[in-house]
Amino acid sequence: MSEGKENPRFWGQCTFNKATFTEATWATLRGARTWVRVCFALFFLAFSIYYLTLSIRWGLSPVYAILMFFITLVYSLLLPLNVHFIVRRQLKRMEEMGKADTRIDFAFHDDCLLIGASTEEKEENTAYDRIVRVQETKNLLLIWRRQRLYYFIEKATLSGGTEKELIAFLKEKNPEIKTR
């Protein structure tokens, strides 16, 4: 991080590794997309039970009901596998770029957020009005700039205050920030 800038109010770090990517990916999958998946699974389950009831009542083969039940089961199991493949693909991409286990430093100054990678000289300067949401997980704080662009900070590395104080600081800088 640049030495010429005044001391930050808060600072933290994040290392790109399997644990942090997995936790961040699970956090980003919550919400509307997960509810859609749950609704589809419930629909398939209800349809399979309905068809099984009809097949028993009318003496039809229950093959379609059993098939629908297995489709529901497989569909329900795909979400954790999806997270596994997303994380694996992202880590592989980071390794190919030579950035596996890269540490990112975050410095929250009064006027902006400075973000710098341990492997690069350049820093990114982000104005607080560009932050739209802050999301907490067990070990991470996710700071969202847009729908699919976010930064994550490991809570254990946060200095200068607590997570709640950082969130209050961010909301003071931009009252439109949503929290989850």
Radius of gyration: 22 Å
Report the average pLDDT across residues: 83
In sequence order, what are the helices and strands, one letter per element? Answer: EHHHEEEEEEHE
Q: Mind describing the biggest β-sheet? A: 4 strands, antiparallel
**Shape estimate:** elongated
**Number of strand segments:** 8
Percentage of residues in helical conformation: 40-55%
The assigned structural class equals alpha+beta
Q: Please report the distance between the alpha carbons of the first and last residues.
A: 29 Å
Q: How much of the residues is beta strand, in percent?
A: 15-25%
Tally the helices. Answer: 4
Low-pLDDT sequence parts: none
Strand order of the largest sheet: 1-2-3-4
What does this structure look like?
Helix 1 (18-29) crosses helix 3 (63-96). The radius of gyration is 22 Å and the shape is elongated. A hairpin with a 5-residue loop joins strand 6 (140-144) and strand 7. The mean pLDDT is 83. The strands form two sheets. It has a four-stranded antiparallel β-sheet with strand order 1-2-3-4, with no helix packed on it. It has a four-stranded mixed β-sheet with strand order 7-6-5-8, sandwiched between helices. The protein is α+β, with helices and mostly antiparallel strands. The chain is 47% helix and 21% strand.
